Amino acid sequence: MLSELASGDDVMTEAASHLAKAGGKRFRPMFAILAAQFGPRPDASEVITAATVVEMIHLATLYHDDVMDEAPMRRGAQSANARWSNSIAILSGDYLFARASRLVSTLGPDPVRIIAETFAELVTGQMRETIGARDVDPIDHYLKVVWEKTGSLIAAAGRFGAMTSGANVDDVERLSRLGDIVGTAFQLSDDIIDISSATGDSGKTPGTDLREGVHTLPVLYALADDDAASNRLRELLVDDGGAAKPLTDDAEVAEALGLLVESRGMAQANATLRGYADEAGQVLGALPEGPAHSAFTSLVDYTIARTG
Fold it and tell me: CDD domains, from UniProt (predicted)?
């Protein structure tokens, strides 16, 4: 990936490689490589190309997200916008998208079409999140955003890995669907951990979403309830115009977290997460047994177990 980002221009290469060198889980390329194990050519060079493409696209979205969120840090390092400027960060993200597009073109027309559709889903999800729920159900809106911003790219990773290794058509579709489910479920588990964990297992300080005025699934479920705790949560988290209100007072953050942990909304969010896990189990049940199948099963189990 780093060789693909080397442009000959020192500033562009350094900026575009900044987040790649900062580390990260590499979840999406791992998913693509695991999906490739279901085909007869899991070691094909095209598999590595496909895995590289999805990671480059993910990195590109991080550059743009950090600009929109005015984030000073990413992966334990300065964000590109903090180290250089918003303009450099935006251009670095654009460059990553461009290099990913060049790389995917070597895989043929179908991968180009798939990645173009995934680009559109990622951008639509970001736009949908920025605009807000408006006149649609906020829970449906939130789940749609999570799928577009997170599930869609992991679905593409599963599809690409399976396609490039020569997996049969049915298994390609199953692995794409598995990526969709696992990606969405992992984000929902992060939402739950942000509220329920005292140790920041999601990589964020508990209550970070509340401080930023972000209403995740447990919050949305709780706000839709009509008991005394939900009424108090609305006072804390919603302004007079009905919009999400960031919490800046530590005592109010602690109070909101306490109410949410005990709320029916948290139980509903956990039930929704288990529903995704059950659906993933059904998809896995139709895939051939083997080491990759076991790895995916462990991944689904971990996604549930990490919420406690």
Answer: Trans_IPPS_HT (cd00685)
Cβ within 8 Å of residue 125, ≥6 positions away: 144, 145, 146, 147, 148, 149, 152
Question: Do 81 and 132 reside in the same domain of the chain?
Answer: yes
CA atoms of 38 and 291, how far apart (whole Å): 10
Distance CA 212, CA 194 (A): 12
Q: Specify whether 239 is located in the same domain as 94.
A: no
Closest CA to 154 of 186, 170, 176, 174: 176
Which residues constitute the domain of residue 251?
198-308
Cβ 190 vs Cβ 218: under 8 Å: no
Query: What total number of domains does the chain contain?
Result: 2
Distance between CA 150 and CA 171 in Å, rounded? Answer: 21
Residue 238, CA distances (Å) to 164, 220, 276 in order: 48, 11, 29
Q: What is the pTM of this model?
A: 0.90
Q: Quote the pLDDT of residue 288.
A: 96
CATH number at residue 148: 1.10.600.10
C-alpha–C-alpha distance, residues 98 and 252, integer Å: 44
Q: What is the DSSP letter of 245?
A: -
